[in-house]
Amino acid sequence: MSQKPIYILGIESSCDDTSAAVICNRKVLSNIVANQEVHAKYGGVVPELASRAHQQNIVPVVQQAIEQAGITKEDLSAIAFTKGPGLMGSLLVGTSFAKSLALGLDIPLIDVNHMQAHILAHFIEEEDAKIPPFPFVCLTISGGHTQIVKITNHFEMEVLGETIDDAVGEAFDKSAKILGLPYPGGPLIDKYAKQGNPKAFKFTKPRVGDLEFSFSGLKTGILYFIQKNVKENPDFIKENLYDICASIQHTIIEILMDKLKNVVKQTGIKHIAIAGGVSANSEIRKRLQQAEKHWGWTTYIPKFEYTTDNAAMIAITGYLKYLNKTYSDVSVTAQARLKVTE
């Protein structure tokens, strides 16, 4: 008896990207992302503008995802959507749309924790993709989160360590802002760092617990360092941009790698995954690949399109919940704050 294909529509609207994806079982058939350019001139995401843009984008994005998948909406088995965490106005657009569509099609509705979805993106079936065995450890790094999570099964997760103040993505973006780079600055630091000397300038690493992170002191240190040097030489940033970017990136990634070494030592788990927007950084990817040779780890690095906010990760999480019949009621509400374990 052949297995009936399960088609899940995933909807992601937690921040400033509107995304819709269709997966069949564990294979991605479409993953459409509409970026919002409007925030660049403000140097960060403006929540009110983000929710308005989601309202404009959601219908065409969902339509395109269904068409690209080569199915009709009547073929869908369920609709998965981001419940949280994220910007409340943005989440409400996706939540309301998903509820209405699920009601209209009379199919199950599945709410998804955005942070769990980043981790579970590793279970998307791709050619040559390694799927981590349980238990594994995931370093979840983004603009809003920095956590080390132990994953025992698809929906049993434990936070082993996290940031006590700012997230790593924020450290990248704020450092870029201090250097006068446009938003989002993290990818630009990565780009310029490739041409610089990572040991040109030394920044102090924060002293916190073995599995905890802290980036606020580092950001302040970078600010004072730049202010002092620009006072002495107004062209300091222009003359040293590549070296400054390389040194900042080197320091941040050293912090991340130190914590991963500590977690392997403490848990004995050598299967290490990364997830979240900052996992697109080329240096962290390179260092993790080196770790396989140096320390005998097995590392799991997601495809670029599954690192930043995207609906494919929402759809795969929805699929795994669908198999367990973990459906949502239409009374489900968006939650701006939501822990990875909730």
Automatic annotation (TrEMBL):
Fe cation binds at residues 114, 118, 309. Pfam families: TsaD. It is found in: Cytoplasm. Binds 1 Fe(2+) ion per subunit. It catalyses: L-threonylcarbamoyladenylate + adenosine(37) in tRNA = N(6)-L-threonylcarbamoyladenosine(37) in tRNA + AMP + H(+). One of its GO terms (cellular component) is cytoplasm. This is tRNA N6-adenosine threonylcarbamoyltransferase. It comes from Tenacibaculum holothuriorum.
